[in-house]
Amino acid sequence: MRSSSSLSLAGARGSGSVRPTSSPACPVTAPVDTALEYLMVKKDFQAALDTCEKGLESLAAFVEQEDSSFKYVELKAALTIVGIQALAELNQWRGVLHWVLQQYGETEKIPAKIIQMCILLYVKVDERAVMKDAVYDWLHCSGNMSQSGFTSVAELYFLHILVPMGHTTEALEMLETDVGRVAFTDEQRQAARSLVDIHNEKNATSSSTNPESVALTTTTCASKQDKLTQRLTSIMRLLYRGLSVASVRIRSISLRRVFLALMLLYLLLVRIDPALPSAFPWLLRLHGLLQQTWNTMFGPYYRTNSRI
Question: How far is Cα 72 from Cα 296, in angstroms, rounded to an integer?
């Protein structure tokens, strides 16, 4: 900024004029330095915004001076850029485009670097739709096609607005219009078409996965799993029932019956001689008692297991 003002002063002295342009240059360039100081050093973003707005108002007085027209454009763009940054820091990004339009009046008159800055800002906050129509109007203005930043604006519009928003048809049509031919080479347009094809294939793949079929498959798997779980649960219940019955039956055996069984076995094996004729009735009686004791102790357990 300061270099441009120095060149203006040098030109004025060489022409012999009595500094007609040096006097207004100081109050115009001063707001830029002050706004940058508030923004970058003091972090007073509201003061930076206020300084930019005051500088833009004072700058309007030099619009009709032909020798300062270039300086006017550059200073206005500088103040606008600092103002955009201040608005973003103040979390007032929603009003950035409106504020820029207040300074330039029409979208087509906004410089390319400011349009780029607005695109990147609204893309970052995921509000691409805000810039779609504005950038479209800017690109289709024939006066902007000669700007050095026209290609960059077209690239940002194609890559960060049209394709992510799903406007692939409009993106392909843009490549065949004057905007696409001016902004891109043949190789770049071919690469852009490939990018659109990849985007469409990705969307087709994601959309082919029908949510209803996924839900049906999930339900079927869940029903099969429920049936298997029920079957396992029933088997476990039968096993548990058999074991519980056996354990109850075994615990219910009294010590008397155990002692009686032991005594019978002792008399049968030790005290009674099977060769004696009198031992035969005892053997029959002992056999009956043993059979009754066995059935009482273990018969219910085996019947339960046979049913299971």
Answer: 115
Contact between 119 and 105 (Cβ < 8 Å):
no
Give the whole-angstrom CA distance, residue 169 versus residue 186: 19
> What are the pLDDT digits (tens) for 75-103?
999 999 999 999 999 999 999 999 999 99
Residue 119 and residue 152: Cα distance in Å, rounded? Answer: 11
89-98, Cβ contacts within 8 angstroms, sequence gap of 24 or more: 89/39, 89/45, 90/45, 90/46, 90/49, 93/121, 93/122, 93/125, 94/127, 96/121, 96/122, 97/122, 97/130, 97/131, 97/134
Q: What is the pLDDT of residue 288?
A: 62
Within 10 A of 54 (CB to CB), how many other CB atoms are there? Answer: 14
pLDDT in tens, 116-175: 999 999 999 999 999 999 999 999 999 999 989 999 999 999 999 999 999 999 999 999
- Which are the contacts of 20, defined by CB distance < 8 A and separation ≥ 6? 12
Q: What is the pTM of this model?
A: 0.59
